[in-house]
Amino acid sequence: MAELTLVIGNKNYSSWSFRPWLAMKQSGLQFNEIRIPLYTPGTAEKIRQYSPSGRVPVLLHGGQPVWDSLAIMEYLAEEFPDLHWVPEDKAARAIARCISAEIHSGFFKIRENMPMNCRARYPGKGMTLGVPQEIDRITTIWRNYRQKFGEDGDMLFGKFTIADAMYAPVVLRFVTYGVEVDRVCQDYMEAILGLPAMQEWLKAAEAEEEVLSKYEF
Ligand SMILES: N[C@@H](CCC(=O)N[C@@H](CS)C(=O)NCC(=O)O)C(=O)O
Q1: Left (φ > 0), alpha (ψ -120 to 50) or beta: where does 38 sit?
Q2: Which one is the CATH code of 90-200: 1.20.1440.20, 1.20.1050.10, 1.10.10.10, 3.40.50.1580?
Q3: 4-82+209-213 maps to which CATH number?
Q4: Could you tell me if the CB of 16 is within 6 A of ligand 1?
Q5: Were 57 and a residue from 17, 101, 190, 206 both cysteine, which residue would form a disulfide, CB within 3.0 to 4.6 Å?
Q6: Nearest CA to ligand 1 atom 13
Q7: 51 CB less than 6 Å from ligand 1?
């Protein structure tokens, strides 16, 4: 099998990097990791060595670059179809795609006002204009699909899928900013937080020394 290498940013701050990293860990794939601290002198050049878009994450599969978090996971789902990436049920799979696309292309208010910062705790911060509406949409998604498709496990569609990887950084943002959610969403968040791979990521984020002031309040 051609070697897999995932190039990522800081674990504390890079929400886009976290998604494929978590999905790859959950699927049991073996991969190498190259971590490039973001927004330092030389960062852009280092990322460009690997990523045509100049952004992380980028996957290198036997030398071939695949960039963009969602594209990486879709690529892996095609390359390793025997691993579990998407729901088996067709209707659930359609919804999983929709909500993955929805988070990939939206929720700009949360992104802007509640940046991922795994180590920090800023309860009540970031709740600016438009943020409550986006939180409401996310919790509606979690509640609806946990209730409709989640009976075989504690993830959105029962077992872990790409959709959970897409929303995992939101779980971390909700913890950092102390966002209160209903019981169903709380249980879902706890299940995501309890994943061994999540704990591994958080431990590594805790150990990082870089501080990006633009993501600190
Ligand atoms: N849509 C892309 C976004 C990737 C992205 O914006 N990555 C940030 C880090 S979290 C980055 O590489 N920033 C470096 C820069 O903009 O110079 C994805 O899903 O992978």
Answers
A1: beta
A2: 1.20.1050.10
A3: 3.40.30.10
A4: yes
A5: 17
A6: 55
A7: no
177: its two tokens: 């900013």
Ligand 1 pocket residue status of 57, Cβ below 6 Å: yes
**Cβ atoms of residues 155 and 87 within 8 Å:** no
The ranges assigned to domains in the chain are 4-82+209-213, 90-200
Position in ligand 1 atom list of the atom nearest CA 68: 20
Alpha-carbon distance of 174 to 5, in angstroms, equals: 29
Q: Rounded to two decimals, what is the model's pTM?
A: 0.97
What letter would DSSP give residue 214? Answer: G
**pLDDT tens sequence across 40-76:** 999 999 999 999 999 999 999 998 999 999 999 999 9
For 170-182, what is each residue's pLDDT tens digit?
999 999 999 999 9
Atom of ligand 1 minimally distant from the CA of 44: 17
| Residue 36 in contact with ligand 1 by CB distance below 6 A | no
